[in-house]
Amino acid sequence: MSAAMDTESTYSGYSHYSGHSKKAHRQGRDRHKSPRSKDGSRSEKSVTIQTPPAEPLLGNDASRAEEGQDDNWGETTTAITGTSEHSISQEDIARISKDLEDSVGLDCKRYLGLTVAAVLGLLVFLTPIAFILLPQILWRDDLEPCGTVCEGLFISVAFKLLILLIGTWALFFRQPKADIPRVFVFRALLLVLIFLFVFSYWLFYGVRILDSKDTNYQGIVQYAVSLVDALLFIHYLAIVLLELRQLQPMFTVKVVRSTDGESRYYSLGHLSIQRAALVVLENYYKDFTVYNPALLTASKSRAAKHMAGLKVYNVDGPGNNASGQSRAMIAAAARRRDSSHNELYYEEADHERRVKKRRARLVVAVEEAFTHIKRLQAEEQQKAPGEMMDPREAAQAIFPSMARALQKYLRTTRQQQYHSMESILQHLSFCITNNMTPKAFLERYLNPGPTLQYDRDRWFSKQWTLVSEESVTSGLQDGIVFVLKCLDFSLVVNVKKIPFIKLSEEFIDPKSHKFVLRLQSETSV
């Protein structure tokens, strides 16, 4: 009998979907027949009809209306209408193509800079070796014997070059974290300084040693050693300029997300604007909660509904002056709209009640699901009469019991676009493998996490544009404001200098801590 009822409900659901499909088809045909509007604007509304078998476990419809949902919502629904959040116009396509061209240019610039740095580094390391080997190759018979002194200098040059090689690899040859719009000024200055330094050494070597064929081989080796020592000092200067200079905090930046107003404060040192922007973005991905555009649709629809309620009519005709009556109507409409805060209050209260109810159901469902699995010890695995499962199979076995409650909770909190069924199963198997509690499993879904917690394809911010009135290579200053823009929102960064703090000292003698007990003449008994 239950099977028959299931078959009947399925058939009724499919017939319901068929009716909606025919209706949608007729509406689409009529819409294609109707002429376009004069301004040529395209409608952003889209109608999506989903059958029950094709509906994913966790839908990605961010704009589903939650106002009229009861506790059994979603069990028999087959037709869903909504408004799309994103639309692509010709201007967007042109902007995307421009961004692709810019990215190709950035890649070429990055590889060009890396090639120049690699060639210059190879020249720096081969120069001392060339200084020592060229006299041995060109006029070996005319050189004066050097003996033990030159051998000790050879060992010194070898170890100094090894230290310089390791330090250069650790400081310069690191995988870049981002593409910046302009060159790094201090790094470019260091490259120019190294080039001029090596060029001057080669010029002196060619004029004083190669042309005259100097026979003092010990002096030639000491000349190469002095070059290696100078290169080590330049490497120390690079560490100071590139790493140590920015460690002391000098500025405080306030980062505000433009859509929801979420803000954070960070302390920065002496950095350029483009490097400060990189630091801000690195902290954004780990500190800010993930951007959820679905949370903004409710407020936008409520504001549009209130604005639609304001209507002004000129009852005396276009030629008569009815400004006083119009002002009165506007005032009446404004007084009528003053009660909108009550509507907002009850909407938020009802939403909080629904979230708490579905949260409680989710917690109970997950706790009950976790009670059905048990970790087997090493000695119990030999005696287990039943079928043993790995963590993935165990997760697939207990997931259906909590899937419905989790689906309803994610839809109510508008998080369903960030959690696919595969990602939930992976997280569940991870929790089972590491013997984690149900509370640890639910932490990811009950509290929205930072952007790094979610898959990269679900980020709304991958490519950024730095907007600044000052040059991006200039250093931070008090009062500078720059903006980091992406496709859907922007980060507004306000820079404030840390004030100079004057701290004084006051000495208190420990013997001065003396007290006297004062008693009144009349005391309570």
From TrEMBL:
Its annotated compartments are: Cell membrane
Membrane topology type, per the record?
Multi-pass membrane protein
Q: Which domain of life is it from?
A: Eukaryota
Output compositional bias ranges, type Basic residues: 19-35
Q: Compositional bias (Polar residues) at which positions?
A: 74-86
InterPro entries per the record?
VANGL
Stretches the record annotates as Disordered: 1-86
Key word Cell membrane present in the record? yes
The Basic and acidic residues compositionally biased stretches are: 36-45
User: Which family does the entry's similarity section mention?
Assistant: Belongs to the Vang family.
The name under which this protein is listed is VANG1 protein
Please give the organism: Haliaeetus albicilla (White-tailed sea-eagle)
Name the gene. Answer: Vangl1
